[in-house]
Structures are given as structure tokens and as C-alpha cells.
Write a structure and sequence with these properties.
single chain, six-stranded mixed beta sheet, 12 helices, globular, cell membrane, Oligopep_ABC_C
């Protein structure tokens, strides 16, 4: 359904591409995780799928949605794509909603031009009921400040579903929520995917969260894919040192009182372009060949050590 092929995006006045020739796929009724630290290019990848890249960015590669290349779509084609093909669930619902507009007006706006104001209002009520909000008739008359964070996240999910898209782009949809509400939203997304058979690209920096919902996972670092594979295999037998470091840094209930080991150093910013593998300066297994050339993604991993 979604095919990203050798996508590269370079922003103005940067030393390296923000997205560096990445490829990934998402099938219908499949949830694919995209994980990595902040600044790795995850959210920019999702925006690229919607055709929301900066006008002055240098772009190459292809993003195909049901065979149509998003990067060459007309403005009218992009509008249809962003409504009926793919839709984004943003991580901060309060930033996605206007505080001056009622919830019903926000949801109906998406559909008003296609089905009329009265039908759009009725559909807004149906969408709120679909995402599990109680008293949907009352909720459409409320303003964002009258709802909790978890309720607002359900509203944002309802908005994403309004055009019945085939692909959902979930950009850290539970980051601003408490643990209990996180579990409820993850359960809702899993249920909606099963009922509507949508594909989902689930973006997160939390590997444990990805393990609960994703069928496959891509690990991204400094704009490049460093490892990919089925979720169970990748978590049980990580092959790239970065994946291993992320998993080791996850807090465990069994290790109360001790801090998990952190990955030393920081990811390179867009103003620096280290040669070879971009993880080499932080890698505990670095070799001379690591800085000579960037290892390609072979058999699901981009690491010289894994090839030995």
C-alpha cells in the first residue's frame, strides 16, 4: 500500500540529508514501527508521505501510495491524498485543535464540502462514538479546553478517520498521555486497524511501546535506516549496536534502584556530516572500516560488525 523507495530529503543550509535514501513499506492491516531518538528523521518521513515537505528542500526518490507517486501529485491530488489515502495523528492534540472552535466544527470541516453541513455534523457524532467518546452529541458542542488530554487524542484520531483513509500516520500519539491513557489509546488504535483494515506507520522513540502494537519495526538513526525486521525477532536478537543500546536503555521493573545504561554521546545534528557509519562515534564496537564508508542495509541491518 505504501512504498518509500530511496527517499532523500536535504534541507537548506545543512551538511547532510535529514532523510538519507531510506526505503520502507506498509501493507494493508499492518502496523509498522519507525523508532529512533529525537532528530532521527521519523516525523519528517511521515510528513513526506503527506507531501508536506518544505518547498526549498532537495528531494529525490519515490513515495508511492497505491502506486501513485506522492512527490509528483498535483495540488488537487494532494488534497484528496491527505483526506482519503493517508491521514496524520499528531502527538500533541492541543496544538492540532483551535481553542476557539467547537469539537464538532473541527470534525465537520473536513467533510462539509463533500457531503454538506448537516451530514457532516451527523458524521462527526458517529466518529466520536467510533473512537469511544461517551456522550458524543454533547462532545461536539464542547471546546478543547473542556476535554482531558486522552479525550482530545481520541478527537484527533476521529479527525484522521473522517475521510476513511487507507493509511494512518501515528506520530508519537501517546507521548503527552499518562500510562493508563496510553494503554487505552494503543488498544483503540489496534481495534480500529482490525475493524477498518487500515495500514499504520507508528512513530515512536519508545521501543517497548512499539513492541505492543507493531508487526514490523524500522530503526532509524541520523536520517538512515540501521535495522529492520519482524518485531519479535528484532527485540529478541538485535543485530545493530544502536538497536541493542536502545533496548538496554529501557527501564525495567526488575532493576529498581539502578539506572539503565545510557548510550554515550549525542546523535549528530544536521550541521555535521561524520564519515562512514553515523553511529560510529557512539558505538562500543567501532572498527576502522566503520568510518571509511556508510554500510548499506543488507539482510535487515546496516552494520559492518553484523556482516562478519
Amino acid at each position: 500500500m505504501l512504498e518509500i523507495d530511496e527517499l532523500a530529503v536535504r534541507l537548506p543550509r545543512t551538511a547532510r540529508p535529514a532523510i538519507d535514501h531510506i526505503s520502507l513499506t506498509v501493507a494493508a492491516n499492518e502496523t509498522v514501527g519507525l523508532v529512533g531518538e529525537s532528530g532521527s528523521g521519523k516525523s519528517l518521513t511521515a510528513r513526506a508521505v503527506l507531501g508536506l515537505l518544505p518547498k526549498d528542500a532537495l528531494i529525490s526518490g519515490e513515495i508511492r501510495m497505491d502506486g501513485a507517486d506522492v512527490l509528483t501529485m498535483s495540488p488537487a491530488g494532494l488534497r484528496r491524498h491527505r483526506t482519503h489515502s493517508a491521514a496524520m495523528i499528531y502527538q500533541d492534540p492541543r496544538a492540532a485543535l483551535s481553542p476557539f472552535r467547537r469539537i464538532g466544527d473541527f470534525l465537520a470541516e473536513i467533510l462539509r464540502e463533500e457531503i454538506g453541513a448537516k451530514a457532516a455534523r451527523a458524521r462527526a457524532v458517529e466518529l466520536l462514538e467510533l473512537v469511544g467518546l461517551s456522550e458524543p452529541e454533547r462532545r461536539v458542542r464542547q471546546y478543547p479546553h473542556e476535554l482531558s488530554g486522552g479525550m482530545l487524542q481520541r478527537v484527533v484520531i476521529a479527525a484522521a478517520l473522517a475521510g476513511e483513509p487507507r493509511l494512518l500516520l501515528a506520530d508519537e500519539p501517546t507521548t503527552a498521555l499518562d500510562v493508563t491513557t496510553q494503554a487505552e489509546i494503543i488498544g483503540l488504535l489496534r481495534d480500529l486497524r482490525a475493524r477498518m483494515r487500515t495500514g499504520m506507520l507508528f512513530i515512536t522513540h519508545d521501543l517497548e511501546l512499539a513492541s505492543t502494537i507493531c508487526d514490523r519495526v524500522y530503526v532509524m538513526y541520523a536520517g538512515r535506516m540501521v535495522e529492520t525486521g519482524p518485531t519479535r525477532r528484532l527485540f529478541a536478537e538485535p543485530r545493530h549496536p544502536y538497536t541493542s543500546g536502545l533496548l538496554a536503555a529501557t527501564p525495567r521493573v526488575s532493576a529498581l534502584g539502578t539506572l539503565p545504561p545510557a548510550i554515550p554521546g549525542r546523535p549528530p545534528d544536521l550541521l555535521s556530516a561524520p564519515p562512514g557509519c553515523r553511529f560510529a562515534p557512539r558505538c562500543p564496537h567501532v572498527m576502522d572500516s566503520c568510518t571509511a564508508a556508510a554500510p548499506p542495509l543488507v539482510d535487515g541491518v546496516a552494520c559492518v560488525k553484523a556482516e562478519l
